């Protein structure tokens, strides 16, 4: 049964893996070593595209089920993006590197806030529409801050 599930998983993911293989140079091979920055930038662009589709689909699903965007964002999106960080922190903590686990947890949130919000807002106010202000439409800001403080 496990072998069949692996085949099904391979068939479902093959088109995506092929697309990434064709668009991102593998800088671990000697031929592409010099293109590591291109690999980084293209990987980041793919992550941005996947993130856009993930948020879009969660919004559509929430709208279909009658669940507000705030709840969908706080639960599904936040949990889904935090699980890889949590797994990485658990792995290094089990290796006896507790300081790395804590720095990963704090660092990823700081990076998300400063880069994930700062770069788009900076581009909007400096490049797209110089001197403009960014309007934030967040009905769930109070809940988000309360959850953040509660988790700290």
TrEMBL record:
Family listed: Belongs to the Ca(2+):cation antiporter (CaCA) (TC 2.A.19) family. SLC24A subfamily.
Q: What is the originating organism of this protein? A: Eudromia elegans
GO annotation terms (biological process): intracellular calcium ion homeostasis; sensory perception of smell
Per its UniProt entry, which superkingdom is the organism in? Eukaryota
Q: What is this protein called?
A: NCKX4 protein
PANTHER family, per the entry:
SODIUM/POTASSIUM/CALCIUM EXCHANGER (PTHR10846), SODIUM_POTASSIUM_CALCIUM EXCHANGER 4 (PTHR10846:SF21)
List the subcellular locations.
Answer: Membrane
Q: Topology with regard to the membrane?
A: Multi-pass membrane protein
Does the entry feature the keyword Lipid metabolism, yes or no? no
For whether the record's keyword set contains Hydrolase, the answer is: no
């Amino acid at each position: 049964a496990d072998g069949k599930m692996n085949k099904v998983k391979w068939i479902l993911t093959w088109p995506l893996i092929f697309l990434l293989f064709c668009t991102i140079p593998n800088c671990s091979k000697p031929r592409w070593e010099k293109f590591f920055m291109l690999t980084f930038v293209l990987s980041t662009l793919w992550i941005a595209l996947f993130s856009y589709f993930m948020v879009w689909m969660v919004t559509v699903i929430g709208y279909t089920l009658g669940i507000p965007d705030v709840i969908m964002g706080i639960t599904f999106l936040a949990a889904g993006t935090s699980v890889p960080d949590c797994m990485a922190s658990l792995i290094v903590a089990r290796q006896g590197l507790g300081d790395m686990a804590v720095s990963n947890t704090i660092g990823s949130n700081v990076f998300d806030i400063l880069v994930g919000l700062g770069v788009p807002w900076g581009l909007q106010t400096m490049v797209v529409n110089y001197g403009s202000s960014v309007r934030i439409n967040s009905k769930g800001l109070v809940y988000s801050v309360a959850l953040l403080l509660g988790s700290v």
